Amino acid sequence: MNEPYIIQDEPELKIAVVVGAYDGKGAVSDAFVKGYDIVVAVEPVYRNFLELVKTIVGSYRTSTVIPIHGAIGIEDGYCAIDISNTWDDGQMKMTRRGVQVVSLDTLTSIMLLNKIALLHIDTNGSGADVLNGGMKTIRKHKPHIEISRRDLS
């Protein structure tokens, strides 16, 4: 049985939550450049999640990045996400996959996060859902919030 990640005993740690972490080479890496100590990296697309894990292992950040395969939304549950795949013949095909969704408030409660200093959102248009599902967390932690342009439209 896997033990949950708990970051409760280190209140001075600067914690970043990256929603839509993709392969970890963008916002996750940037968080360390900006001086964050721990990054919780959430990625719903399984193929991207595997690349995220490879990036974490390859950069020796296994003790400072917590990868989570799932999505952050308004409320807890499941959703279907569309994933594009390019086949050997060059044809593009869309497939649907189910993924577990939790709200940002649930995530911070489960992980016992004392202080989120950064909330980075890059969800291809679902940024409002992340914010709406994290209002208690945002009010309590008052993190610096970065939102990609795709999430503002």
Description:
26% of the residues lie in helices and 33% in strands. The protein has 153 residues and is α/β, with parallel strands linked by helices. The chain is globular, with a radius of gyration of 15 Å.
Poorly predicted parts: none
Q: Please state how the strands of the largest beta sheet are arranged side by side.
A: 3-2-1-7-8
Which range best describes the helical content: under 10%, 10-25%, 25-40%, 40-55%, 55-70% or over 70%?
25-40%
Secondary-structure-derived class: alpha/beta
Q: Which outline best applies?
A: globular
Oligomer: single chain
Q: What is the beta-strand fraction?
A: 25-35%
Tally of alpha and pi helices: 5
Quick overview of this protein structure:
This protein is an alpha/beta fold.
Outline the secondary-structure elements:
Layout: E1 15-19, H1 27-33, E2 38-43, H2 46-58, E3 65-69, E4 71-73, E5 77-86, E6 92-103, H3 104-110, E7 116-121, H4 127-132, H5 135-141, E8 144-147
Parallel strand pairs: 1-2, 1-7, 2-3, 4-6, 7-8
Antiparallel strand pairs: 5-6
Notable characteristics:
single chain, 153 residues, alpha/beta, three-stranded mixed β-sheet, globular
